[in-house]
Prior knowledge:
The chain is α/β, with parallel strands linked by helices and 375 residues long. The protein folds into two domains: 5-162, 2-Layer Sandwich (Alpha-Beta Plaits), CATH 3.30.70; 181-374, Rossmann fold (3-Layer(aba) Sandwich). It is 41% helix and 17% strand. Strands 1, 2, 3, 4, 5 and 8 form a six-stranded antiparallel beta sheet that branches. Helix 1 (18-32) packs across helix 2 (68-81), helix 6 packs antiparallel against helix 7 (225-249) and helix 7 (225-249) runs antiparallel to helix 8.
Amino acid sequence: MNSLQKIFISLGTNQGDRFQNLQSAINALYENIGNILMVSPVYETKSWGFDSVDFLNCCVCLTTELEPERLLEELQQIEIDLGRVKKAIDTYEARCIDIDLLFYNDITLQTMRLTVPHKSIQYRNFVLAPLNDIAPEFMHPKCKKTISCLLEECTDDSEIVLMSMKLDNPFDSHAFSKFNFITIEGNIGSGKTSLVHRIARDYNAKFILERFADNAFLPKFYKDQSRFAFPLEMSFLADRYKQLSDDIAQYDLFKEFVVADYHISKSLTFAKVTLPEDEFVLYRKFFNVIYKDMQQPDAYVYLYQNTERLLENIELRGRDYEKNIQPDYLEKINKGYVEFIKSQPGLNVKIIDVSGLDFVKNRKDYIHVIKQICS
């Protein structure tokens, strides 16, 4: 994942349902750009630079993984999607929506298409007033003054009126508030670890990731399954039990909840596929002793991915010890998960079909998965 950048955006509109235009733009920013941290109050102002209907303006602070040029493209596409048609000549005009990038962290950037910070921030009350509501202490990287200072010094005497209507923030930072511990499960290559990373980052969660890379038996198993299956499964069971027990018990005061990319039952699911019957019977006795003492998650999320897509993902991540995994092995693993889920009526299971989704690269798919988990 790319690192998150904090950005500030100005929105303006003076055509049609002005308030709905702002709300639609905010919704689109959330779906296409990133999580919205703050939304300012709405102000009504006279048109600036030309005579027209009064504008409604606001500012938004959000985080994004997009680089500046790519971000500009997405912002312009949102304007188009919301009905804005720009003239060939760059002049002031009435518009259904105007989206301006004000700041991209504290960087300064000048290209043929983009200037950051926006060159006119310090001259416009209709930008500074809502911006001051959400970031009064933010330092303008070129002016070397805070937003509150720039507003105080601004010579723009145009009237701005604070409106009573409040815009909604579609990003719910407390979406997972009903959970203390959730598990994201899935077959090899389903994307569970990537999803756990994003949830932990976006919703301030402590994450637990399986330490499969540290297991010395795993490469040997993929070369000779019959010989190394039992020591592999026993070592995994011991490692998973210790890790989950230790990490869940260690309460983190600064995190909202815990999210793991595996459930202890994964051990039983894989062992049933890899072990012969007599060894599995012995293995299950050890597992049952451990399982009854494990804390169960508030939600068990299973990401279903079709076998063809799993194989594609496995090939893309290029782990040498996984290159010989066969389709029938993955299908047996999936069947094992399904059997376990059916055998646990007391477990809060959420099955999400992600076969047609790419929640790593496509933000809308990611939001869809989050809504499914929290519903």
